[in-house]
Description:
single chain, 3-stranded parallel β-sheet, 9 helices, 8 strands, globular
Amino acid sequence: xxxxxxxxxxxxxxxxxxxxxxxxxxxxxxxxxxxxxxxxxxxxxxxxxxxxxxxxxxxxxxxxxxxxxxxxxxxxxxxxxxxxxxxxxxxxxxxxxxxxxxxxxxxxxxxxxxxxxxxxxxxxxxxxxxxxxxxxxxxxxxxxxxxxxxxxxxxxxxxxxxxxxxxxxxxxxxxxxxxxxxxxxxxxxxxxxxxxxxxxxxxxxxxxxxxxxxxxxxxxxxxxxxxxxxxxxxxxx
Length: 237
């Protein structure tokens, strides 16, 4: 099972592609073996987001529904803040299920160490999703990896002696996103102005003027290493 985190780019940007282009990308991903798709209620507007795009896709290609495992970020609140109240979570789950009939599991995304432990007392946790890149290595040191190791919950983790067993458990079910630093490692983003108005990355701390210059300097140092070791970023991926 390979992880595909592309839905934000299909519905959550100022210049979204056409449905035909989106469907072509989705089919290409599935044909290439990327059958663990990552989307979200907040990826776009209520009338056009991951859920509505998936509903249209499955209407066109119904046989693909059984070939894909879906991870949908739910319970978003205006301003990119989650609402974890029982009432809002139930509403979010029902909203997802209204788009298509499917079995559902619980995946925790971008959480603190104690969250998987507490959630696992209530229900089975299918996976924990984290951002893991050279910019974001916190899951390897903040207790998330250790917690998931103890409970055999799939997650990407560092190769250290006490986590090698965890890697064996999760090797077939990775759930990390943004391995190229939300685009910063592509070399295409040199300033905040390279991000279009409406791009959600414009509000993220690493892209703010007070942080951007320092991050670009770090990126230049990483590029020097990459010139000596061509496969540096590919090895990371």
